[in-house]
Specification:
single chain; alpha+beta; Aminopeptidase; seven-stranded mixed β-sheet; globular; binds coenzyme A
């Protein structure tokens, strides 16, 4: 696992990541909106540009120098000292090998130590049991749920 690291997403890595991307059914509340992912160069450029705001850091999860997933710290609020984590591995080849767990641990450490956050939030679609398992494994506590989502938080 030594080879797994988080680094800031670049435009080139974003293209590399999305060329092999598969959407995961687990994050869709409504399966009518699920569509298999098809790579489109312009769409990836627009996506990358749309994630460059100052309240967000877009990371690429790298394993042995290849992009295997994306992780965001978003809604970064430097006054309240909290932000929200989201994660999506590239495709089924990169899931179930411990990489998501490790990436979340690195992101929490980054949020606390580099960004000075006191808390990190996360939410998952209710049916996404795998994500809930990983979130709890890395130390998030369940806060509440509504019709669609479960909400979690980890405090420094
Ligand atoms: C959720 C996600 C980030 C986890 O990353 P990962 O690399 O697949 O996860 P890991 O291999 O580190 O750990 C998976 C854990 O879930 C467990 N697991 C797998 N399927 C499960 C299921 N259906 N129910 C409960 N636990 C499950 C595994 O046993 C493992 O736990 P363990 O280490 O205690 O045995 C990844 O699967 C993913 O990108 N999924 C699609 C997008 C997504 O759901 N993002 C999160 C949105 S909130």
């Amino acid at each position: 696992m030594e080879e797994l690291k988080l680094q800031r997403m670049t435009r080139n890595l974003c293209h590399e990541l999305y060329k092999e991307w598969e959407n995961d059914e687990a994050i869709y509340m409504d399966m009518n909106s699920f569509k298999p992912y098809i790579y489109n160069e312009d769409a990836v450029n627009r996506y990358f540009d749309s994630k460059q705001d100052s309240s967000r850091i877009l990371f690429v999860i790298m394993h042995s120098d290849k992009p295997i997933g994306e992780l965001q710290l978003k809604q970064i609020d430097y006054d309240k000292k909290e932000c929200t984590l989201s994660i999506h591995m590239q495709n089924d080849h990169s899931k179930g090998k411990g990489y998501g767990t490790k990436a979340e641990q690195l992101a929490i450490k980054y949020a606390f130590e580099e960004l000075g956050m006191d808390a990190v939030n996360a939410d998952t679609v209710k049916k996404n049991i795998r994500s809930q398992h990983v979130i709890e494994k890395v130390g998030f506590k369940f806060i509440k749920e509504d019709d669609c989502f479960k909400y979690y938080r980890i405090q420094r």
